[in-house]
Design a protein that fits this description.
Blueprint (H helix, E strand, L loop, with lengths): L5 H14 L12 H8 L3 H13 L3 E4 L3 E4 L3 H5 L11 E2 L3 H11 L5 E2 L12 H14 L10 H16 L11 E4 H13 L5 E6 L3 H9 L3 E8 L3 E2 L1 H10 L5 E4 L13 H14 L2 E5 L24 E6 L10 E5 L4 H9 L7 H13 L1 H27 L5 E2 L7 E5 L6 H9 L3 E2 L1 E2 L12 E5 L6 H18 L4
Parallel strand pairs: 4-15, 6-7, 6-9, 9-10, 10-11
Antiparallel strand pairs: 1-2, 3-7, 5-12, 7-8, 11-12, 13-14, 14-17, 16-17
Length: about 475
């Protein structure tokens, strides 16, 4: 026994167990009270051991969730697998996307491939009653625009909601769209012309790749890690040495598919970098309201003083998917975006905007979205635990702090596309890694949706996916 403090002895024992693989990366570690009981110490000593390992980047603390085994450092930084951006290339993803799109309309029993929550999470009956009452009072909403006074009231409610995220949105800088996809598409149409280069994260949401392909744009893929999001170093290298980049599309809060939450310091550095290079940023905050912590993470737009960030948000994930109500605040581009939208879809349905206005004004939106967040967190925890228990050794999972997506990095050699084919035969779907890049990358990765309520059937299906992965790696599949 040496003269080391007791908490360091405990920390060393924990580190040895981590190194042995007893707790795979991403797995939950014993609670502080349990650790204290195991070693016969008080909770402060046990907590000090975890804090020491946190400083060594061996464990990660999650608010209200406890401590988790960290990814290896070379994986967390992304430098080993993704040293920097590759050359910009025209996007062609239709062949890889078509199968996933068809799955959504199929009879697959366990659909885990899309970023969707189960209908039971949303207040369908409550919204139905509100809509009926509204139409009884204002039947003209079926065939008219939302009155100007009502529009102004709704914009004021959006402004108050954004203020709770530390975001100051002027009343005249709110533009509603048909979901966040239209908001991003409008922004790209305004800022680019066919053949232009757009910087995106990699892995990246395949829907954005489809939009780029439709507009004839080149994707410059910048590495993104589950820990910190977009690599600022790789982006700066590309801006200094690569082809001119027209704009950047980034998901700073709970990125799709990795679930990454960009630290506030990185958000500020990103904004400074964009200013130096005259780069306009399109910020996609579609998952921002699905935070698991105490508050909505601060958007990048909150530090934008020059109007260079086009902020895009949506109520699709946090309130009513079928309403398809997105909105943007375009900074110095806002007036041009308004004109562009007038030339396409013009306005959102008045009845849907009126329902949203009522729900925001009554305070019910806060209640609804909080319940959805709590449910998603429970489902995410159960899903992550099940994946780590079922998948082969070497699988890495970084538990996101919000959203509804779990990014799973399988051992090298796993072919998630081939694995999907065998899973579909068992009526289970997921999104294979190849669809999250314009290039053939991430073949060993897969994305699983945590929007489905946890059940014994879902637990069994995750075990089946783990078994399929193990069988494939052993050469039996």
């Amino acid at each position: 026994m040496t003269d080391l403090p007791l908490y360091l002895h405990i920390a060393r024992q924990l580190q040895a167990r981590l190194d042995s693989g007893e707790w795979p990366p991403g797995s939950r570690l014993p609670a502080v009270r349990r650790l204290a009981a195991e070693h016969g110490v008080n909770t402060l000593t046990a907590l000090a051991a975890y804090r020491h390992l946190e400083e060594q980047q061996s464990v990660v603390a999650r608010p209200r969730s406890g401590f988790f085994a960290a990814l290896p450092r070379h994986v967390a930084t992304g430098t080993a697998a993704q040293p920097g951006p590759t050359a910009a290339a025209l996007v062609d993803v239709d062949s890889r996307m078509s199968q996933l799109i068809r799955l959504s309309a199929s009879s697959i029993r366990q659909q885990l491939h899309m970023a969707e929550a189960h209908s039971s999470l949303y207040p369908a009956q409550e919204l139905s009653r509100r809509m009926q009452l509204l139409l009884a009072r204002q039947p003209e909403l079926i065939g008219a625009y939302l009155p100007t006074a009502d529009q102004q009231q709704l914009h004021q409610q959006i402004r108050r909601l954004a203020a709770s995220w530390q975001l100051d949105i002027p009343l005249d800088k709110v533009l509603f769209t048909q979901g966040i996809t239209e908001a991003i598409s409008l922004s790209l149409r305004l800022l680019t012309r066919p053949g232009d280069v757009v910087a995106v994260e990699t892995p990246v949401y395949f829907g954005l790749l489809q939009t780029l392909q439709t507009l004839g744009l080149k994707a410059l893929e910048i590495p993104c890690t589950p820990d910190a999001g977009l690599s600022l170093e790789a982006l700066e290298f590309a801006l200094r040495h690569g082809a001119p980049v027209k704009c950047l599309v980034t998901v700073t809060n709970f990125q799709n598919p990795t679930g990454a939450l960009m630290p506030d310091d990185n958000k500020k550095r990103l904004l400074q970098l964009a200013r130096r290079h005259g780069l306009t940023i399109i910020e996609d905050d579609v998952f921002g309201e699905l935070y698991f912590g105490p508050q909505h993470p601060t958007p990048l737009k909150a530090w934008d003083r020059d109007g260079d960030v086009i902020y895009c948000s949506s109520f699709t994930k946090s309130f009513a998917p079928a309403f398809r109500l997105g909105w943007l605040s375009g900074g110095r581009h806002h007036a041009a975006l308004e004109r562009l939208r007038e030339s396409s879809s013009l306005v959102s349905p008045a009845i849907l905007l009126a329902v949203l206005s009522e729900v925001l004004a009554s305070g019910d939106y806060a209640r609804i979205s909080q319940r959805i967040r709590q449910q998603l967190k429970q489902q995410m925890d159960a899903l992550a635990d099940a994946v780590l228990a079922a998948f082969p050794r070497g699988t890495r999972v970084r538990r996101p702090q919000g959203g509804m997506l779990l990014w799973v990095e399988g051992p090298e050699g796993l072919d998630s596309q081939a694995m999907l084919e065998t899973a579909l035969a068992r009526s289970i779907s997921f999104a294979p890694g190849l669809v999250f890049s314009a290039e053939p990358r991430f073949a060993h990765c897969l994305r699983i949706n945590c929007g489905q309520p946890w059940s014994t059937q879902l637990a069994e299906d995750i075990r089946t996916l783990g078994w399929l992965a193990s069988e494939q790696l052993s050469g039996k599949a």
